[in-house]
Predict the 3D structure of the following.
Amino acid sequence: MSGSQNDMYASGIPTANNPYAPFSSRIDWELARWAKLRGPGSMALTELLQIPEVPERLGLSFYTADELNEIVDKRLPGRPRFVRHEVLIGNEVCEVFYQDIIACVRAIFGDPDFTPYLVFAPEKHYTDARKTQRMYHDMHTGRWWWATQEEVERKKPGATIIPIIISSDKTQLTLFRNKTAYPVYMTIGNIPKEIRRKPSSRAYILLAYLPTTKLERVSNKAARRRMIANLYHACMKKVLQPLESTGISGLSVVTGNGTTYRAHPIFTCFVGDYPEQILVTLGYTGKCACCKISHKNLGDHAPEIAADLRDLTAILNILDSFDARPEDFLKSCAEAGIKPVIDPFWINLPYTHIFRSITPDVLHQLYQGIIKHLVAWLIEVYGAAEIDARCRRLPPNHHIRIFGNGISTLSKVTGHEHDQLCRILLALVLDMPPLESTISPAPVVRCVRAILDFLYLAQYPIHTDDTLALLDEALARFHADKQVFIDLGIREGFNLPKLHFALHYSQSIRLFGTTDNFNTD
């Protein structure tokens, strides 16, 4: 709880010596806790409490489920409430519902359940006493936190950084009041990943509901796309604007044990699928959201180009030129390869490099991206009948799913199903007969092996410089043999953004920690 929450809570407690206030006694508190976490429905609870003398004998402060709900909602401190804001675009009024992000940060940071585990400073971990081999796992072991801590300390010594992690998925639409909106979630990097990624820990907060609209009244498709992008950034700017000042000046936050810190909440990472990545970075579909590589070269194995991220300073200069030279703004944006969004939400966020903030996404990029493509290529190479027959012939085994009907007819495959499929994929292509008289099946097997190596290495919970080298080497092996799919007429090229983003994995892990810091499943 924050200081203001503590004061408000204390003022509503009639008896200072009662540690269970606003409940009257321990049994009052225990029954309320059981009713909300483990108990029956509201109707059954009310019927129980209406049995004569039950509330009186137990000394309860509530007689119905509604009275208990009123105590929980109004007399206990909790997370902030949603507020509503209207945005006018294209003669259409859109609603965005959001919580105060600073209050959300204070609520998570001050949660007593997280207090024993919070991390307040970056650390460098090594595998040996000579410190020659770095280790990367939780966010505080990455290079970003260390570099940002040094930068903040030069201006405001004694700072505690709170890395803000924002995630959204436009496909997860929520329907309410005959309207649709898609959710935006937030958490903080101070909570270890083992706790943060468990839904039961409640380490994520539903930060906002962003509006969805097709702007059907706007006939020009290009103008419509620009307006939808501007709507997204206007809403996100409204939600994240408090970070612009507090990231620089800091604010007082209190942990669950009462310790006060001067914290600097800084937008650090964005977690989302490819369409959201493009929307956030102002890019165009078919290009990389992070680096300068052209669309026609996405299939190249070019780690040196992938390491060269977009020039944030140059992009900011173009965005700042709108007021001075509005007639040249569209041309400048086109030359830089960005959409002409006048005021993106990250333009004034301190210590934020938006092109560096895009994180790996194992679910969408690997399982439902590269693996999905690879399975389709293999089915086309060997034929659906042969692949399905091999699926049926696999012997039963522990932790292995047998696809009795094959895999060629699967549709709407989930990430879990792709995970199960990967466990048998190499077995399906081993010992295949020659593809053609002049083409050996060996490169196909090597491609499958390389992609699976990359997939499983990418999910290591702890990485070192050596394992990251193995990760890059696995990707290089795939690129060395991928020509076989072109020779077989399966592909004309490999200009796939999700395949290209694999080049960014090792760089991102060194900056922000391992990929399980940023789950989207």
Observations:
- Residues 5 and 77 are 6 Å apart (CA to CA).
- The chain is about 45% helix and 15% strand.
- The mean pLDDT is 89.
